[in-house]
Specification:
With about 500 residues, this protein is α/β, with parallel strands linked by helices. The protein has 14 helices and 21 strands. The chain is globular and about 70 Å long. The structure holds nicotinamide-adenine-dinucleotide. One of its GO terms (molecular function) is aldehyde dehydrogenase (NAD+) activity.
């Protein structure tokens, strides 16, 4: 990779990364197809000649991954695995800010998030799973019929992480930590829009003591992802991305070797504000919920339902705060910036087109325009009272665009919140604990926040119902997703 014309204070900025990371080394790709990456703040070229890994590259990485799975890594004790995690967390303490800074050049994620959120999130994830390496238990059933039954939780083997563009390094660690804690090996396929951080982080695994081949990185696009999804020696795909790609991966998995899949897909998350809610708290959470990473998060609070009796007060506060938030949008590499641009011109054009069509289907109350004349900046945008089938109300926008609707009754809002194919996250804002629990139980999503929204916690399962996905990440659930039980029957 050649990094062009970008002044970034990082040690590896001059290093050549126009390679794959395979078996502990940066190696040349067999492919001549390459990617160029632009900074979404102004369209300047950040890097070029990033390889798009092809079939030969994929086969090479899988071969080394299999060798690593059966090599010294298989003999690591749980405490040795845990030590690797802890050493990696220490190494990242100093190196992660530069790596995340590098990613910011292509994702547009503000560098202001690095010290406050990103770094801690990734370190917590590693330390959390460092504590799990010796705790995943099997099972035992007594020999009352003459057979003792032992159940072992065994690793799957060669696993693949296929990641989206919005938070590439965090996605890498969310998948790598439970995958490695259970003794698997991992090939990472970052998004074609944001491979830099993943390529930069790869050698740190060996520096921390993981053997070569345990974590490898293959940059590429959908074709590379498809080669991995259909590969006969890959045992698991852990995918985060769109519903459309998730379906293709599930088909490829079924048609090849029935490899296991975890799918973390899109969302259209509802936030329900009841009349007894703390309005200030609800406004704060729902605004953060739609503006974090400029709306490019799967759990974005993109549908807000507010009870009619408080709707005037809530909506006026909400709109004012959205207008004020526009002032926090700017150069993502400026440490004072809160919100950056959309990740590239394709994302920008898609969001603009949805806003434009939305104007005929709902009332635009604020935003909707490009900010400035260059770059992928878009105003925080609020629509009111959508038509029932409005695209802006039904489909994931993946931008800073929210639709607000009023409601009268609990029953009515539960029905509206559930009237979607998505089911990832929801928020319920009320001071009545009975109502909070009643409504949470009836909302059809993998996660419900009470008096909060658009958040996740490493201890608790995270993932979607319905078209938002299959399986769960985080907590013990992720460890289960990277292992399979084996039963041993002992004839006494
Ligand atoms: P995407 O589906 O376009 O791409 C995701 C990854 O899949 C990329 O690495 C891409 O190269 C790869 N890919 C594309 N075609 C493929 C194929 N045929 N086979 C295998 N891999 C293929 O998604 P995106 O635009 O990068 O990310 C945005 C989407 O991700 C949104 O829908 C968002 O909601 C979702 N997302 C979900 C979560 C979650 O945890 N649920 C988190 C972040 C993002």
């Amino acid at each position: 990779m050649a990094l062009l014309g970008q002044s970034i204070p990082i040690s590896f900025s001059k290093t050549s990364f126009n390679k794959l990371y395979v078996n502990g080394k940066y190696i040349k790709s067999n492919s001549t197809d390459t990617l160029s990456l632009l900074n979404p703040k102004d369209g300047t070229l950040v890097a070029e000649k990033i390889p798009i890994a092809d079939k030969v590259d994929v086969d090479t990485a899988v071969k080394h991954a299999e060798a690593a799975f059966n090599g010294p890594w298989a003999t690591f004790t749980s405490s040795q695995r845990s030590e690797c995690f802890r050493r990696l967390a220490d190494i990242l303490e100093t190196k992660l800010p530069d790596i995340l800074h590098l990613d910011s050049l292509t994702t547009g994620n503000p560098v202001s998030l690095i010290p406050t959120r990103e770094k801690n999130y990734i370190k917590n994830c590693l330390l959390y799973y460092a504590g799990w390496t010796d705790k995943l238990r099997g099972d035992y059933f007594p020999a009352d019929d003459g057979f003792v039954k032992l159940v072992r939780q065994e690793p799957l083997g060669v696993c693949v992480a296929i990641n989206p563009y919005n938070s590439p390094v965090a996605s890498l660690f969310i998948k790598a930590a439970p995958c490695l804690a259970t003794g698997n090996v991992l090939i990472v396929k970052p998004s074609e829009k944001s491979p830099l951080g993943s390529l930069a982080v790869a050698p740190l695994f060996e520096e921390a003591g993981f053997p070569p081949g345990v974590v490898q990185v293959l940059p590429g696009d959908g074709k590379t992802g498809a080669l991995l999804a259909e590969h006969m020696r890959v045992r698991k795909i852990s995918f985060t991305g769109s519903v459309a790609t998730g379906k293709k991966i599930q088909i490829a998995a079924a048609q090849s070797n029935l490899k296991r899949v975890t799918l973390e897909l899109g969302g259209k998350s509802p936030a329900v504000i009841f009349e007894d809610a703390d309005i200030d708290n609800a406004v704060t959470w729902t605004i953060n919920g739609i503006l974090a990473r400029t709306g490019q998060v799967c759990v974005a609070a993109s549908r807000v339902y507010v009870q009619k009796s408080i709707s005037e007060k809530f909506i006026s506060q909400y709109v004012e705060r959205m207008k004020a938030a526009a002032l926090g949008i700017g150069d993502p590499q400026d440490p004072d910036t809160r919100y950056g641009p959309l990740a590239d011109s394709a994302a920008f054009e898609k969001v603009r087109a949805m806003i434009s069509r939305g104007k005929g289907e709902a009332e635009l109350v604020v935003g909707g325009n490009q900010i400035g004349t260059k770059g992928c900046f878009i105003e925080p945008t609020v629509f009111l009272n959508p038509k029932p089938d409005a695209e802006i109300y039904r489909n994931e926008v993946f931008g800073p665009v929210v639709v607000v609707k009023t409601f009268d009754t609990e029953e009515e809002v539960i029905e509206a919140a559930n009237d979607t194919e998505y089911g990832l996250m929801a928020g319920v804002f009320t001071k009545d604990i009975n109502r909070a629990l009643r409504v949470s139980a009836r909302i059809d999503s993998g996660v419900v926040g009470v008096n909060c929204v658009s958040m996740m916690h490493i201890q608790a399962p995270f993932g979607g119902k319905k078209a938002s996905g299959i399986g769960r990440e985080f907590g013990e659930y992720a460890l289960r997703a990277f292992t399979e039980p084996k039963t041993i029957l002992i004839n006494m």
